[in-house]
Specification:
By secondary structure, this protein is α+β, with helices and mostly antiparallel strands. The chain is built from six helices and 20 strands.
Length: 276
């Protein structure tokens, strides 16, 4: 009986490590080669166990390789390899547009201050994956309530909120919303409109205008362009170019107006943004 017949072949037709082991034993002239059939069976069983362990290791190695490839694709997605994507370092206050391993554009930015207003407003730049949802030209800034809190605190004033449907009386002055504007009602029934995009202060109180009024819509604060991520975040220009390179924003990423103009020409809606 040949050694090949005793040991057999791998089920897929290739020689297994068993044949190699048996051949080495035969060539070396080790006495155990001429052992009885029962003893040969024990060797075959032991060798088969080794072969099974080798195949298990090979299978685990293939699974590990597949996992590593999946991790690589997660860290460097296919979209990042094929098309431009944005990377921002919040600590270094730098922005890059990359395509694969190439850097298409680099710029300084301003990022979030990280401090708090009251207990519910953090000004840190969130570190996660975003996506460009909209490209906006000459964007308007609609300030959240914290803007009025800051404004009032910096001047030692109190605040009052105006509801769109209900007039507000402070002392002898009545305020209401008319035609999209916050107006002051005169004693004769006439109205005076407050300037749009400017804080309203009446009787030592900073008025929080309703959303949708022109007094809660500021021009030029966000510069010439904005890449909007949603949730109140985005990359935009600024009317304070001296803040670039600092932790100065309320969470968004600021760029010089000339830099954001270059950026919007390099990326499209849907572009991934990675902030770390």
């Amino acid at each position: 009986m040949s050694s090949e017949h005793v040991i057999g072949r791998h089920p897929r037709g290739g020689n297994t490590p068993l044949i190699v082991l048996w051949g080495l034993l035969t060539v070396a002239g080790i006495p155990g080669v001429s052992m009885q059939w029962s003893e040969r069976s024990e060797v075959v069983a032991a060798a088969a166990k080794v072969t099974s362990e080798i195949e298990q290791i090979q299978q685990e190695a293939r699974l590990l390789a597949d996992s590593l490839e999946g991790l690589r694709r997660e860290v460097t997605p296919a979209s990042a390899e094929a098309t431009p994507y944005i990377v921002v370092s919040a600590d270094a206050r730098r922005l890059w547009v990359r395509q694969g391993d190439s850097v298409l554009f680099e710029s300084g930015v301003a990022t979030g201050k990280g401090d708090l207003i009251g207990r519910n407003a953090s000004f840190a730049t969130p570190r996660r994956r975003f996506q460009v949802l909209r490209k906006e030209t000459a964007p308007l800034w609609v300030p959240p309530d914290w803007h009025y809190q800051e404004y009032a605190a910096s001047r030692g004033l109190s605040m009052a909120r105006l509801d769109a449907a209900t007039p507000l009386t402070i002392g002898e002055t009545t305020l209401r919303v008319e035609g999209g504007d916050v107006v002051k009602v005169r004693p004769d029934g006439g109205v005076e409109r407050f300037a749009p995009g400017k804080e309203v202060v009446v009787g030592g109180q900073v008025i929080i205008p309703p959303f949708g009024t022109r007094q809660r819509s500021y021009k030029n604060v966000l510069g010439s362009y904005r890449l909007n991520f949603g949730d109140g975040y985005g990359i935009h220009g600024t009317d304070r170019p001296g803040s670039i390179g600092q932790a100065a924003s309320h969470g968004c990423i600021r760029m010089k107006n000339e830099d954001i103009a270059k950026l919007v020409g390099l990326v499209d809606v849907g572009t991934p943004v990675y902030i770390f």
